[in-house]
C-alpha cells in the first residue's frame, strides 16, 4: 500500500528547509534533537492508529513534513563540530602559543608565499581534541610538501581567519566555515615536527595514488601545463593549474570541464559499461556488473577528492546504473532528487557550495529545457544533427546556471556555445585516452608516442581555449546581480517551461507577472544604490579614497594605471553598488563630504596653520609626527589609518588613541572606513 502521496521531492524540499533554518537561525541542538525525536515518535504512533485511512489524513502529511524539517536541522547541527565539548574552541587555550598535534586532510592551492592545507586537530595542549584548521606553511629555499594523513606537531598561535576588509569582497572566512574551519596557523618548517607519514585513511591512500600517478607521468615526459590539465580532468585536482590558463577557461565559458562533474562521470560510466559488457553473459551478470560499476565510480570519486559536484554526479549515476540493470525505468528528476536527498542528509553544508548548486541547476536545465529547444528544429542528416544536439545541451545548461552564475561571478561568456561545441565532443576522447595513459604509466608501459600525442591534444585544447578567451568584447564583465533577481529569474524559467507544456492563460499570466517582477526588482536595486558615500579602502602599501555620487565614483589614489585597472576592491564595489562610471584622480590633502571635513596627513606631516578644524584625520604613507600634539592641536572626532602605513606606526598610533580616548579606525584590522 502506498503511504499517502508523499514524494521524495516534497521530503527533499522539507530537508532543505530544515538545513536553511539551522544555518541562519542558531537554536539549541538538544532542543531541536528532542523535538525531532518526539515528532518521529508521534508520526509512527499516528500511522499505527490510522494506517487504513492514511490517504485522507492531512494531519499525517503535515506531521511528516515537520519531521523532515527537524531531520534537516538535526543533520546540519550534527555536522557542527563546535557544539561538541572536545572541539579545541571549547578547551582552555593560551593567549599566544598552543601545543597542537594535527593531521593533514587536504592540500589546497598554494599562494605566492605559503603552501596551504586543511588539517584535523588531534590534540590541543596535550588533551584529545577535534576540529579543523587552515595551515599556512611558508615556502623555504628547500620546499617541503606534506601529504594527506601526515601527522605533525607544532607550538604556535591560532589566528582567526581574516574577515573581508573592503565592501562586497569575497568572504573567505564564511567559505571555510562551511568546512568547519574557524582558525589558521602560520608556520615554517623550523617549528614543525613530523610524527608520522603513514597512511591511515582512504583519503590518504587516494592522495598517495595521485602522487604516484603524477610522478609516473612526469617520468614519462609530460610537461607542467599538460600535467595540470590532466590532474583537473582525470583526478579532480585543480591546485596546480597556471592562473592564466585557468582564467582562459573561465573567460571562454568552459571552466566546467575542469571540475569533475556529471559530464565526466557520465562519460566514464559509458566507457565502463562498454568494457564490462561481457559480464552480462554470466549467470548473475546483471547483479555483478552494476556492483563493479558502482564500486569503480565511488573509487573514482574518492580519488577526485569527493567534491560536491563529483559526489552529486556519482550518487546520481549510481542510482541510474542500478535502475538500468534492474530493468526499472529511471525518471531523471527522481534520480536527481534522490541523489540530492542522500547527499544533503549526510553532508548538509553541500547545499551552500557553489559547485553543488551549479551542477544540479545545469542538469535540471538540460533535462527540462533541452528537449524544448531541440524540437524547434530537427535536422535530417546525422552530421548536422549531432552538433545541433550538443549546441542545444550547452544552451540548456547555460539557461540553468546563468542566473546563479551572474550572482556569484558577475560575468557572462558570450562565446560559450562556440567553445563548448568544439570541446564537449572531444571530451570523451580526452577522458578515455587519458585513463588509458594513466593505466599504462602505472604499469611502466607508456610509449613515447602516446605521450607526444596526448600532450599535443591537451596543448591544442589549451590553445583553442586561449584563442576563444582573447575575444574580450564577447565577455560581459561586472554585471550587478542580486539574490532577489536570481529567484525571480528561476521563477520566469519555470513558468515559461509550463507555458510551453500547457499553453493556457494561467501560466502565461504568471510568467508575465514574473517578468514584470524582474523589472521591478531591477528598479528597486537601482533605488537602493542611489545613496552617496565616501570610502577609505584598505589597500596594502597604497591609498585609495572613493567619493561616490549616485552612479558615479571618483577614486583618489597613488596606484599606477595597470594596478588600478585590475584592483578587485574597486571592481567589487562597482558591481555591488551598480556603478556606471569610475573616474581616476590624484590624492588630495582635504576631502569634504556633506558636513564632514577629512584632513589627509601624508609622509610630509603637514597639519599646522590650518584655517579650519577637520572632523576626521586620515594618516597615510607613514607620516613622522607626534600624534598627541596633532590631537591636542586639531581635536578631531576620529583618527583613520589606511594600509599604506608601517605596522610599527599603526601600533603606536593605536596606543596613543586609546590613551587619549579617541576612536581609531585601522583599515587593515577593521576594514574600509565608510561615511554614508
Walkthrough of the structure:
Among the domains are: 3-79; 88-199; 364-413, no CATH class; 483-529, no CATH class; 533-675, no CATH class. Helix 8 (262-275) packs parallel to helix 10. The longest helix is centred in the middle third of the chain and has 28 residues, at 382-409. The protein is globular, with a radius of gyration of 29 Å. The protein starts with 7 loop residues before the first helix and ends with a strand. The chain contains 22 helices and 20 strands. 32% of the residues are buried. This is Competence protein ComEC. Keywords: Cell membrane, Membrane, Transmembrane, Transmembrane helix. It is a multi-pass membrane protein.
